[in-house]
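Reading a protein record of the kind used here takes little practice once its layout is understood. An example of such a record is reproduced below.
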Amino acid sequence: MLNRFYRNCSGNIAILSAVMMTALAGMGGLVAEYGDGLFNRIEDQRLADVAAVAGATNYAENTSVSAMNATVSRAATLNGLASSAAVASLVPSPTGDGNQAVKVVVSTSVPLQLSRLISSNSALPVQAAAYAEIKPSSTDCILALDSTAAQAITVTGNANVQAPHCDVVSDSSNSDAFDVGGSSQMTTACAIAVGGFNVGPGLTETSCTAPDAHAASTPDPYSSVPALTAAGAGGSGVCVTVPPLPAILQPGNYCNGLSISGSTTFSPGLYYIDGNFSIQGNATVTGTGVTFYVTRKGTTSIAGNVTATLSAPTSGTYAGILFFGDRSATSSSNNQITGNNGSMLTGVLYFPTQLLTYTGNSGALTTCTQLIADMITFTGSTAVSNACSGTGVNPFTSPGQTYASLVQ
């Protein structure tokens, strides 16, 4: 009886058909639901792209991660998803160009129905990512840090300041924070002030269509650079004696100030000058990889028919800084930089708490000059450029002077 039952093939086709139909239904469901997943991924990618650009635009304007996250979450809810479906993070740009980017990952899922006949999964996870890079529309080369002073940036007399490829910025909230008066002229990519402007037809902008008043404050880009000490300049702080000129000077502690009126070569390194630092007369001075730190007891002056060819270090703590005025000095200290057509100053002229007067044809041949001081006054024809690649100088950008670009 049992042998007959085992040998009986009646009904096998029906059983196999039932099994195969279940498998076929599951496979058909998997194909259909996987198609839904592909459609969802296209939609998720679209949302990731939009949210990344929106988040990067917000961060460029506000430099706030929380505001950036809120913008991305809002983009998710406007597209019918939970706010948690889009997650943003601030990361280095995948282009490797040193800029920041906003990465947005959008995660959703497709419920599985028929395909559950052959799978234990209840949903198919779907994910898409996008990167929007925050790129500077222009970089700054002149920055007055005083937060309240009138005429923190001043172009006066018959001055003609040419900085067509970089921005000029006043952090002052005064209604006359940025002043281009009389017959003076200034050409800049963008004129920016926390406060207001007093400018006439002498101001020309090559990138912006109008002066940017009531802008966000631009932070001091060198605020974290420590003050130099006498010992830090080398030689354990021993006072250096200046030999008769012409001479080749060495880095170290110039405890009685430093006055140059003849041909001088500065060897690479750090110069700590405790007193006035002056280069005057018909002096011709050269120096590569040098930083001059002047204490509060003195000021920096380059005057007369001086030809100065000086460049800052390209690496190290003081990379890019050519002149460094003691932060404990006050705005009553006036540093005056004047040079003839052959002068070339490459680096940052940094006097964060003092006045800087830039006169004559200072830096006419320079391809990389940043001027950062408490207040800055121009009284002569001056050219300033910010082509700083390879010089150690880090170009910086004011808040809001950036744009978002989808890169991946």
Q: What stands out?
A: The mean pLDDT is 85.
